[in-house]
Write a structure and sequence with these properties.
ProC C-terminal domain-like fold, binds 1,4-dihydronicotinamide adenine dinucleotide, 2 domains, alpha/beta, binds (2S)-3,4-dihydro-2H-pyrrole-2-carboxylic acid, eight-stranded mixed beta sheet, 12 helices, 8 strands, Rossmann fold
Length: about 270
């Protein structure tokens, strides 16, 4: 299978690294990437073909993965508009809607339909990502299987039933690592304020999140039950959780994720206008 990536930045690099580990052949992968340094790095690290702009070889692929920033997408697709012949196209861009991508990729009056919209996240860099996927109804089972297999190279996958859910996926798991890093930063700050040096405070914070996430992933108990098991009556955890509840922490986080979801929809509408 021949797969071409449009954009060879962070996420494309993570995907390519994961795919090679899962047995995809480097000879089948190509990258169209504007930046010379990024092209050299991809070619040297992975042995894939990396070119500055689409040529016949880059276009002659079975799957095209769109991995440029949402704001870069329309201009990046312009050189190949109307030049695809039935390839499966997988977009990992936040916000961008299939209808707009199809219009930008197709010829006038003939939008490209064989599209899958995905949202991975940065733990993909270490093979621990989670990706939400939604396929245009025109994509057949083989196309869905191919998209699922590519994204499964960097972590777990969850299929969405409706395209609107992709903005929710973006808000929960796409942006989610940033919320967790922010939580780690806060726990580390607390450790510093209580007398630990940076290294000690960071170790305590990171390993707590790592251990708790592993326990949640491997336990039959729901997270709420696991939380209750840490919380002794009249103890230390209860004092901390009461302080968080008084600050409205839970509702604040829900509101933050809702803001991200709204921004995803807004981005899609803004960028899809033209
Ligand atoms: N960073 C994140 O946490 C996540 C990002 N995404 C999505 O992944 C996509 C890529 O994001 P990153 O890899 O973080 O961005 P990035 O900026 O690292 O990579 C984008 C690459 O595209 C290249 N590029 C731009 N215009 C081009 C063109 N016309 N032709 C060829 N190459 C071009 C740039 O030189 C750059 O190397 C975005 O659409 C983003 O929404 C999805 C999930 C998570
Ligand atoms: O912040 C963003 O827009 C992208 C999408 C998900 C993670 N980063």
């Amino acid at each position: 299978m021949k797969i071409t990536f449009l954009g060879g930045g962070n996420m494309a690099t993570a995907l390519i690294g994961g795919m090679l580990e899962r047995g995809f052949a480097a000879a089948g992968l190509q990258v169209v990437e504007l930046g010379e340094a990024a092209r050299c790095a991809l070619a040297q690290r992975f042995g894939v073909r990396a070119v500055e702009s689409f040529d016949d070889a880059a276009l002659a692929c079975d799957v095209l993965v769109l991995a440029v920033k949402p704001q870069q997408m329309k201009a990046a697709l312009a050189p190949i508009a109307g030049r695809l012949c039935g390839q499966l196209v997988i977009s990992i861009a936040a916000g961008l809607r299939l209808a707009d991508l199809g219009r930008w990729l197709g010829a006038p009056g003939a939008p490209h339909a064989r599209l899958v919209r995905c949202m991975p996240n940065t733990p993909a860099l270490i093979g621990a990502g989670v990706t939400g996927l939604y396929a245009d109804p025109s994509v057949d089972a083989a196309g869905r299987e191919t998209a699922g297999r590519i994204l499964a190279a960097v972590g777990s996958t969850v299929w969405a039933d409706a395209e609107a859910q992709m903005d929710a996926v973006t808000a929960i798991s796409g942006s989610g690592p940033a919320y967790v890093f922010h939580f780690i930063e806060a726990l580390e700050s607390a450790g510093r304020s209580l007398g630990f040096d940076e290294a000690g405070a960071r170790r305590l914070a990171i390993d707590t999140v790592l251990g708790a996430a592993k326990l949640a992933a491997n336990s039959a108990d729901a997270p709420a039950v696991l939380r209750q098991k840490v919380t002794s009556k009249g103890g230390t955890t209860e004092a901390a959780l009461a302080s968080l509840a008084a600050a409205g922490w839970h509702d604040e986080l829900v509101a933050a994720v809702q803001a991200a979801e709204a921004r995803g929809r807004e981005l899609g509408a803004e960028l899809g206008k033209d």
